[in-house]
Amino acid sequence: MNSYFSVLYYRRQHYFSDLLNILDTAVTVIILLVDVVYIFFDVKFLKDIPRWTRLFQLLRLIILIRIFHLAHLKRQLGKLIRRLVSGNKR
Questions:
Q1: What is the DSSP string of 3-49?
Q2: Which residue in 17, 21, 51 sits closest to 34, CA to CA?
C-alpha cells in the first residue's frame, strides 16, 4: 500500500528512478503474491513457502533500517548546512 501511494505522489518515473524503491516494491509484490497463493491454493509443493516469505520480510527489514539511517543522515546534513550558512553571514 505504501509503494502504491508513493508512486501516486512522486509520479512513476521519479519513484522508480531509485533502486531502493524498486527493490522495496518488488519485495512487497512478491510477498503479496506468495501469501495469496498460499492462502487460496492447497498445493503440496507449497509447504516451504512460509520460509520464503520470512526471507523477503527480512529483506524489508533491511530496507527499513537503511531508510532510518538515511533519515538520520539527512538531519545531520541539515544541521551542517545551517551551520555553514550561519558561518558565511558573519
A1: HHHHHHHH-HHHHTTSHHHHHHHHHHHHHHHHHHHHHH---GGGGGH
A2: 51
Q: 52-65, pLDDT tens digit by residue? A: 667 777 777 877 78
By three-state DSSP, how is residue 87 classified? helix
What Rg value do the Cα atoms of the chain yield, rounded? 20
pTM attached to this predicted model: 0.46
Taking alpha carbons only, the member of 37, 79, 29, 83 closest to residue 59 is 29
Question: Which residue type does 24 have?
Answer: D
